[in-house]
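Local shape tokens

___
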Amino acid sequence: MFKEKISSYCKFIFSFLFLPALAGALCGGVVFLFKVAAGFVIEKSHFIYAMAKTSAVSMVIFFATVVLLSVLSAFILNKVPDARGGGIPSAVTILRGLVRFNWWKSLVFTFFSSLITFFSGIPLGNEGPSVQMGAAIGKMTVRMFGEKHKALDRYVMTGGASAGFAVATGAPVAGVFFALEEAHRRFTPTILITATVSVLAGFFTANLLSIVTGITTASLVFPAPVEITLSQAWIAPVAGIASGLLSIGVYAIFSVGRRLRKNIEKINYYLKYLFIFLLTAVLGLFIPYVTGTGHGIIESLFESDVTWYMLALVLVIRCILASSANNLGITGGLFVPLIAFGAVGGALTAKLLISLGAIDSSMFATVVIMSVAAFLGASLKTPITAIIFVTEISGSVTNLGYTLLAVLTAYMLLEFFNVPSTNDVVIESKIAKVNAGKKKTSGEASLTVMKGSHVIGREPRDILWPNSCFVLGVNENQKSKHGVYFAEGDVIHFRFDTFDIERIRRELIELLGKQELPDELFSEEEFEAMNVK
């Protein structure tokens, strides 16, 4: 009995501490390098845009470069679909087991394709590619150090993705809650431990590299907000309503973009990329705020007085460009661009309130920060992550209760109008495209928990079952005062409804162990082809 406990404890340490820590550390190093490269490329992009205005020759060279970059980006993403989008929705589809991907292609080409995006000035962020590369590093870690433990794939990938989020945004606690609230939409001890270990390893690795190299990578930093008094409590719901309405407007623009994409499917792939790259270049020459990841416009809000009409124009143009680029699959994330939308919307709200004499100009930053939290919490349907994120990057818990009220107001407004999460809409669109033309398979099956399998000693909620595979019931399970845990010999009854029955088969075997499989779900030839030990 004692020997079994020691063996189980060692297995737990290897599976949920060692592998996630290793994946997190590797991710911290890769994302640090990625942020350094991105910072260099973005700096050169600003120089190129400025130089283009100096002479006719410079302008010709500028547009020739833009054309070349559009062709290069289209070529890479046409050949390597795993690098498309590169945003959080793409990573979430992988973590939830909705799509397959090639980890090394995703890692390498997401890295370089993102740099093309940043150099061109297309308004997409670096946090999405960081999350996707983190997921790829998680799978790489299991393949290199735990090949016999493929059931750990999605756990360690989740840890890597969380570490990528934390290092890219500079918000480690928000990185942990990203895994719980966005990636898997559930709170379980195993996911919490895995994400926390990976985030800590990644965050400390990136900071250590920063100290050793003397290179400081850019992360968003908000000024400390002014404390709101009880008599000013009305500011929170006002900011929430404004952010909620802005979320609805952004969703409408993204929806129009998705409908237009269907109408232009027959247009040459390269021409569509060329149009977005050239449109971004032309607009960026006249309105610099519309290009880049979004860090620049956010910093400008607090460092200079940008006019309200310029803010409104930048908000609309950036939204159209980001939507168009995302719908075409150009590599880059939406998280920082969404923060920029929320910040610009908050700045417009603050300017209106100040002009009406309702608040003092010292409250400007407070309204902006509160609006960012409300916009993110509502548009992504991740209120806890949004509140934690703005708290971390502002370095202050001031107005936490009022921020919660603003987020709740915006969230309820979107619920009232039945507006879905921006990420969920992108995920559904991606899944529909991946499964186009495939036949859905439905059925039920009963499988036995074999000796030494991954699920032994764990609760059903802690298991990342294959997507669209549901546990109907368990026979002969063992109970304890701490809950219900799977034990060897338990018979689990499943219901599945999927486009990818092969994936369901493989993942169930990886979770439950090798066994005689029922004819209605598996054939012996298919089982032998899996070569699962």
About this structure: The two ends are 25 Å apart (CA to CA). Residues 2-213 form a domain with the Clc chloride channel fold (CATH 1.10.3080.10). The CA atoms of residues 95 and 154 lie 6 Å apart. The beta strands are 441-448, 469-475, 478-480, 483-485, 491-498.
